[in-house]
Amino acid sequence: MARxxxxxxxxxxxxxxxxxxxxxxxxxxxxxxxxxxxxxLNDGKPGERSxxxxxxxxxxxxxxxxxxxxxxxxxxxxxxxxxxxxCIGCGYCFYACPFGAPQYPRVGNFGGRGxxxxxxxxxxxxxxxxxxxxxxxxxxxxxxxxxxPLCAEMCSTKALLAGDGDIISSIYRERVQRRGYGSGAxxxxxxxxxxxxx
Amino acid sequence: MRALILTLALLxxxxxxxxxxxxxxxxxxxxxxxxLELQRALQGGTINGRVxxxxxxxxxxxxxxxxxxxxxxxxTLYTIGFVAVGGMGVVLWLFWSMKGRIRITGGPxxxxxxxxxxxxxxxxxxxxxxxxxxxxxxxxxxxxxxxxLPLIGAEAFTSLSALGKLGHxxxxxxxxxxxxxxxxxxxxxxxPRMADIEWLKAGGGFFNNAHPPAGRFNAGQKxxxxxxxxxxxxxxxxxxxxxxxxxxxxIAGQQLAHMVHGVLAMVMIAAIMxxxxxxxxxxxxxxxxMTTGEVDYNWAKEHHSQWVDxxxxxxxxxxxxx
Lengths: 198, 322
Description:
Oligomer: heterodimer
CATH topology of chain A: Alpha-Beta Plaits
Number of helices of chain A: 7
Structural class of chain A: alpha+beta
Largest interface: A-B, 64 and 63 residues
Mean pLDDT of chain A: 91
Radius of gyration of chain B: 30 Å
CATH class of chain B: Mainly Alpha
Strand content of chain A: 5-15%
Largest sheet of chain B: 2 strands, antiparallel
Number of domains of chain A: 1
């Protein structure tokens, strides 16, 4: 099986936010929740880079490690998913996540968190594939349809790559070789304990 | 032969190739992502940028500190909890099996004197009952996944934990109110005195069946009081930071708040376990103080001799002579 990853080529990202919009629309993500966002580093300064960031579907995922109710699971494609029927909205995954991926609807008292929501790599959740129940809880399941995540498919400059880690990293390496520069794959060291070189 | 020459030529050309092909990570005014992530992970802190969505906290691109928090939660806190709570359990069990119940040496006299009035007792039980729920639901977040989840199954465990979370959030309010009332009622009797040093030197009399003199509260009880009020206050303060996410502080602040909350709570639980033991099965006559509020005269004379003297001095002469 493939080892699915995201790779954002920061030298190509133009901060158009199409990935963010595509994600929100595809999964009907509610207000206040962003499964994906574009972060601009050194905004307006030399060396400005924009990076589209969502759940990186980490190897040995920190969210899964700290979850008190053990609601996370990893698919055969190494996609990290969670069961909203088990989640209690404690917020621990948010403290542990290096990428700020977990999102919580605000429900009830105080800053009370509802059940956590995050990028599913367009792979839905534990419900039966492409059912209404799955869509309401997790959004579309494109992986079950043989498609890749929409954010990357939608990317106009092909900055955001999704797919098997070996393939997307070789695409990125080839680009870097050709153009002679590259600021590296953001999040890879943290998420996969490796850079794009290996 | 041709293959060999080709291989040799390639091998010789390799260093030259490496020089002509630019390094894949030539920085254009910026160090590579990998290096920056490593740097930040080593220094602590986050990699921040600007976002166009109205959610400032999502500008946090990478926060390697999350890994440290993970280690704290899964290893440090787990170990501290295991040692503090489990260790206290073992200590109490050993004490029980060696000493048994501490009896009133002189036997019950039949005469009683009032130790805690209704307000004091009601307040104690408000704090105590909310503490029990806070403690169990809190311990559940650290240990439940390993101890309870395999026993009762995922769905039942989630229902229980969700209920626990609700209880944990709401019962903090009566708990804190109780702490404030407790402070007002008992602080003056819990200020350290010279007798406390003697009491501590005698080991509270736990090991030699002695009864070192003590006022209304002995040094051990004073310890429990201050652990409850100060520790409980800090645990509540850090807890409220977590109940209102991002209202008071950022992600790093919340991680720190959780760490303080977790460690202090474990220490408190251990201390309160000892308190529960000695206030119930561990000592004859002790539990009356918090149920009826009337303690036996001989019990009071043995454990709080100075307090009894004070009470007798205050009482009208007729009652004292009785």
